[in-house]
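3.2 Worked example (two chains)
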Amino acid sequence: MHISTVTLLVKDLDRAIEFYTKKLGWEKTMDAPMGDGTRWVTVAPANAQASFYLAQRWPDRPDVKAGGSSGVILEVDDVYQTQKDFAKKQIEFTEAPRTEPWGGWAMFNGLEPLSDVGGCRLKPSGTHTRDLENGDGGNPQQDQERGKKHS
């Protein structure tokens, strides 16, 4: 079993597709009409199991609107380097990269303004609660201070 699709509410579907495919380099994995004037559009990083369904509304929840934080967390190898790479693509951060007890952390805008697709957070790959308990928080400097060696 695995997670297949996560719904991400967007205001402008075509701008969201452009953001994920052009700026982040993801693939549009599906774009199909749904019969009621809406489209089923999914985007995902290459070779990913899970994808985002870019929805303009919840059919059964008209009160839910696009905008604000999406609650999505993307894992990257290096939060600080990813922020530098994203800055070259003019992706703005609402929270600059910083080090937390569990490792690096940052939040970026999906599109300008933030309400177009919501924001996503970044965290370093492979950091989990068990890593923190073992002194491996994804931050080599802090881990070295704790006596944990990185290979």
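3.2.1 Second chain
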Amino acid sequence: MIHRGILGSLERFIAILIEHHAGAFPMWLAPVQAKVIPIASRHEGYAGKVAERLREAGLRVEVDEGRETLGKKVRATQLEKVPYALVVGDKEAGQGMVAVRDRGGVEVRGVPLERFVARASRRSRPGPWRPATSKTSADGAAVGPVADGVHRFVAGAQGMRGARSARS
């Protein structure tokens, strides 16, 4: 846990969020959701087209046009904790596909670009917010996550009141 007195509540929240995820944010929260890695400089054109298609779908994408080896590019992408690395070469460019590698190292080759775009755009949105609701049992008592939390809170507050009254 990060303890700093000069930080405000928003900064503390972000620090806790980063610490909780260890920098490996969920897809919808990641600053870069996919990185396109061309195998050679001649594949940079197709890599740019792939990145543009992903941007059209609303994803945050970068193209790695560095001169390092493919292995170093993939490793750097993993260390940056980017959710997906898309490797493109001659085969992928000729067939309109990508080789997908997730940050865990699982690789799937020959994925049609449109299939990846559809799947990634679904994952790039946070899930719908569903309020935790309480239900009632047959005898009318509240049950469920909200009721449990309220009951624990009330029980704790009653315990605190009892402790205060015992002290005074």
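3.3 Remarks
The first strand starts at residue 34 and ends at 38.
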